[in-house]
Amino acid sequence: MKFPKHCSGSPSTVDIWYRTCRPPLNIQRLLMAQDTGGAIVGAVRADLFTGWGSWTDEAYTTAAALKQPLQMWVLWPRVP
Fold it and tell me: Would you list the domain boundaries of the chain?
């Protein structure tokens, strides 16, 4: 998963609870944001890596259909 570059102060890896409840992807899981995406434009957006493959593989068809609402909770570490 990637975060927009303008998320100032974000560490290189962040744990995120990710939830989406619509086809083609209906998941609730803990993910790790590992990168900042150059193509992500806007405040509350994410880029989810679904896997490798050609135009006909499941990873591509899932990724191509992923413009859908989602909920994300960023789990920041507590600073003492």
Answer: 2-75
Q: DSSP readout, 13-42?
A: -EEEEEEEEETTEEEEEEEEE-EEESS--S
DSSP state of 47: B
d(CA 40, CA 72): 16
Say if CB 39 and CB 20 are below 8 A apart: no
User: Of 71, 65, 76, whose CA–CA distance to 29 is shortest?
Assistant: 71
Q: What is the pTM of this model?
A: 0.58
Element containing residue 74 per DSSP (H, E): strand 71-75
Contact 16, 72 (CB under 8 A): yes
CA nearest neighbour of 32 among 12, 8, 62: 12
Quick one: pLDDT band at residue 51, thresholds 50, 70, 90?
confident
